[in-house]
Amino acid sequence: MKNKVIFLADIQSFYASVEKVRDHSLKDKPVIVAGDPERRSGIVLAACPLAKKFGITTAETLGSAKLKCPHVEVVRPHMQLYIDVSLQISRIMEEFTDLVEPYSIDEQFMDVTGSQRIFGHQFEMAKKLQIKILNDIGVYSRIGIGPNKVLAKMACDHFAKKNKVGIFRLDKDNIDQLWKLPIEKTLGVGEKMGKHLRGMGISTIGELAKFPVELLKKRWGINGEVLWQTANGIDYSPVTVKTHNQQKAVGHHMTLPRDYTKIEDIKIVLLELCTEVARRCRKKGYMGVTVSCSVRGADFNCPTGFNRQVTLPVPTNYDLDIFHAAYKLFIKYWDCQPIRSLGVSLSHLQPAHQYQIDLFDNYLYREQLNTALDSIWDKYGRTAIYRASSITNAGQAHERAHKIGGHYK
């Protein structure tokens, strides 16, 4: 493990950088990529370095960003373009190593241990990769280096992103630099967990690293040990191209264009979500037995909602099976307050061809129906056929069919 050389390459302000390459007139202007404010999705998804100098941050509202920088250029997202560019960057990385593992759309791990004989020392190789991505794609990458994935990730986030060359290595020889950082900078520690750790007298990553691991395990189980290992730069997980092949769940989440208050309207969207989850499961060749329903309230100042699940008696990838389970969860746990977002997922997946037939249910009929629907959607697109309820004012299926990840393609 100590001889491994792992890269985490991150593209600076990915969406905004791609937009500047797409439209050269934006090159020297502050740019943000944001959703559609008219449909209540006006949130900053990415801000270029020039925009960030005005104090604009990711996830703030479009209105707030424009107050900070009235002349900022606002670009709506082009999600298909970002996916295509991300794949192009993956192919560039594969010129350096065959071990490339996507971490997110703009971050990818690389195991370059065996590539140094060809491309030179790790820092030399990182620079070559950086230049190659810049010349071929036009975007700037920052590269964290470490003996494992967790150190490479934190090297990139906390050091490579802040130095002039955009490259930094973190290992046992300089881990004390990491230990000086606030506890919230630990990979996997958010605001809530940070408060818990500070309540235990742990305010820096170094204090977490030196805290008795047994006490952390006693409070949080295996997650407590993972936190301790992360702070100490311990990570045994390999870089693997098969990470995303073994899917654990299939889900679909939707931020609503307005407050939904009527059960009749919510029911329509819930059915659309279940239809999409079922379609994705069939596309991937899965069935599942655990249905989850998640809801978030409309009040940002006093957030409400729930995330509950139920296990079905037999596995399924049929939309109405999923819907009936999700709807029961919704009715049971909804507090009747306006909702802003809704999500459904199916987990505990298994291959679709390995299921036990329910003798009291004609599953063959449903399989034939699913096959017919999937054939129509594959040939003519997602707007070719959908339920009549989706053409009501509450329905979102037609609008969502033109989007990827909630944003227009």
From TrEMBL:
* Keywords tagged on the record: Cytoplasm, DNA damage, DNA repair, DNA replication, DNA-binding, DNA-directed DNA polymerase, Magnesium, Metal-binding, Mutator protein, Nucleotidyltransferase, Transferase
Q: Which residues form the UmuC domain?
A: 6-190
Gene Ontology MF, one: DNA-directed DNA polymerase activity
Looking up InterPro entries in the UniProt record yields: DNA/RNA_pol_sf (IPR043502), DNA_pol_Y-fam_lit_finger_sf (IPR036775), DNA_pol_Y-fam_little_finger (IPR017961), DNA_polymerase-Y (IPR050116), DNApol_IV (IPR022880), IMS_HHH_1 (IPR053848), Rev_trsase/Diguanyl_cyclase (IPR043128), UmuC (IPR001126)
SUPFAM superfamilies the UniProt entry points to: DNA/RNA polymerases, Lesion bypass DNA polymerase (Y-family), little finger domain
Gene Ontology CC, one term: cytosol
**Co-factor requirement:** Mg(2+)
Concerning its family, UniProt says: Belongs to the DNA polymerase type-Y family.
Quaternary structure, from the entry? Monomer.
Q: What does this protein do?
A: Poorly processive, error-prone DNA polymerase involved in untargeted mutagenesis. Copies undamaged DNA at stalled replication forks, which arise in vivo from mismatched or misaligned primer ends. These misaligned primers can be extended by PolIV. Exhibits no 3'-5' exonuclease (proofreading) activity. May be involved in translesional synthesis, in conjunction with the beta clamp from PolIII.
Question: What's this protein's name?
Answer: DNA polymerase IV
